[in-house]
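Minutes, project check-in
Item: structure for the 282-residue chain
Input as provided by the requester:
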Amino acid sequence: MAKISASVYTSHVPAIGAAIDNGKTSDDYWKPLFAGYDFSKQWAAKNTPDVILLVYNDHASAFDANLVPTFAIATGDEFQPADEGWGPRPVPPVKGHSALAAHIAQSVIQDDFDLTVVNTLDVDHGLTVPLSLMFGQPESWPCRVIPVAVNVVLFPPPSGSRCFDLGKALRRAVDSFDEDLDVQIWGTGGMSHQLQGPRAGLINSEFDNEFLDRLVDDAAALAQKPHIDYVRLAGSEGVELVMWLIARGAMDDSVSLKHRFYHVPASNTAVGHLILENESED
């Protein structure tokens, strides 16, 4: 049977992708950030899964204000990098896993989560930057990826507790897939940041580090945090962190922390990163 073995959590700042694509990773500004992913690349090379469920938010590339699903799963066989206004990122197409994605959609919808099923989708920096941080610049990505898109852009976004429960439903779906697959689930976005208004540039390191700590050891309680706390303490875009709760909900209650990294700033954003492994053998 398929199983979820690990989860990865990382910010997906678009400027990180630009630094990679333009050979700036060794610049004084960027070098400390990319050093925080050195272990992660080694870990990813040793623990490359068959499939990644990659939880991210679209930035008006595949969806716009006319149609924004709360939760969506992409069931296609291939997804092209999106043109976000300056051309697509020079990264490989993402290869999907249509059989597992369709099974997950069937299972999760019958489990009372109304996922939108998307067959054709271009993927933007929210999905490709995490892949670049973990796998570098390969000619092709080393595993298949199922995009799971979450609305954290337009009001109302889903609650943290709903996201956490969706993670549990995704876990049940993967566990019931009758094929021997090693699956990872990645939660992306965040950490504290605000892109507009009088508080543009807000970063709250205390909030971020508490969130990282509690995600490991106190996730169920952390999932009860109301949205207003994210907005007040982590900025208007800090609510992206609910996507990390989806990934954490799909993991065992008790997990093994393999890597933790936090860095300020990357562009106008705080960057957080965790790698967690399930401790159970079955």
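Outcome recorded: Strands lie at 3-10, 51-56, 71-74, 78-79, 94-95, 116-118, 144-150, 182-188, 255-266, 269-278.
No further action items on this chain.
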